[in-house]
Amino acid sequence: MIFLIICMLLLLILGVRIAYALGISSLLYIILFTDISPMVIAQQISAGSDSIVLLALPFFLLAGEIMNAGGITHRLIRFAMSLIGNIRGGLSFVVVITNMIMAAVSGAAIASGAAVGSVMIKSMEEKGYNKGFAGAINAAAATIGPVIPPSVGFIIYASVSNASVGKLFIAGIIPGIILGLGMMIFCYILSIRHNFPAGEKRNWNEVILSFKSAIWSLLMPVIIIGGIMSGAVTATEAGVIAVVYGLIVGIFIHRDISIKTLPAIFTNTAKQTARIMIVIACASAFGWIISREIEPSLFVENVLSVAGQKWIFMFVIIIIIIALGTFMEGGSIMIILTPLILPILLTLGIDIVHFGVMFQLAIMLGLITPPVGILLFVISGAGNIEIKDIIMNIWPFYLVILIVIITCAIFPETTLWLINTLGNNIS
After folding, report:
1. Does the pLDDT value for residue 304 go beyond 80?
2. Using N-to-C axis directions, what is the helix angle for 109-126 and 131-142, rounded to 10°?
3. Where are the domains positioned within the chain?
4. CA dist., res. 250 & res. 408, Å (int)
5. Which single residue of 85, 266, 299, 358 has CA 20 to 30 Å from 211?
């Protein structure tokens, strides 16, 4: 199994895409070290993408594409700016608030980071903000995307763990809000310390006008989350409703989407879905080999002998996830690790929904961890900022995410209270 992991790492170092690195290393291992037919890799790749839960994935990706094409980013930024008023460092608050709202539409960190960052970094630079800070807050705020529902990461985790997608969505609401509030607190502290410019005085006419412009966009999260929380729809059905709603708003109300632009929207969604699904499929084959080569009961026994208490195990596995997240795609990590750690979670009495939120938060921390944190490169490209300048300014927000992870680990109620309050209606 050492060959399997080393081969995958070497391929990544050589620049091979993560999906192909996982697939090629799996195939080589089967050919060189087992007497199993190589066809088993094709079978496992097929089985890995054959999950009813994953049906929700393309619908939420399509809903995000539709809303972005319909001018959602600019409307939300305008509305957030009108609310902030003359608070010092106001534009940094706008970045966080916009990403929190965008999170309830797209559910993807990279999409949110690119959409908001491409607009806000330039605006912040023009207003006199440090460019490195502008990049750092945009990168950090984008990590909220996959925590507040809907979340692509939660859908993938649910497909492997058999956890309820609806419960995972609801479980991410409070940690996502805490994450956003924590970042805004640090934004205010840093704004005072570095004397960042204050926003413009609040104009209530502009608040009303911008709210009217953004209200159809703001209703999207209400429909998605409200439908799931009430038990009226499943996560997949909510995704379908979001797509239909987005098309109606984009074509007939905002009129930013025309029939001619639909092929491009559908094509982009198909490409995104294909990229994610091929990673999921190849990671499934890779994970199957690891699960086959490791005796589950022996693995559980060895882990528990080192980390026999739930808190120790939680913090050890979080460190491992953060380390893997610096160079691997989050979905791959979930698919490879989840089958291994599920028996341990059950043995230690750790709720799989609670752990799913912890898993997602840890992956988000990996996305902004050098040297290979993907979000650092996305924001660097969107704002034409040196990676080192973002890294020098991002550590306070790294600390915020770490505090939220530790808080959620110590107090499971942060993820489970809302679910317990709503009862068993969530599917």
Report:
1. no
2. 160
3. 53-422
4. 37
5. 266
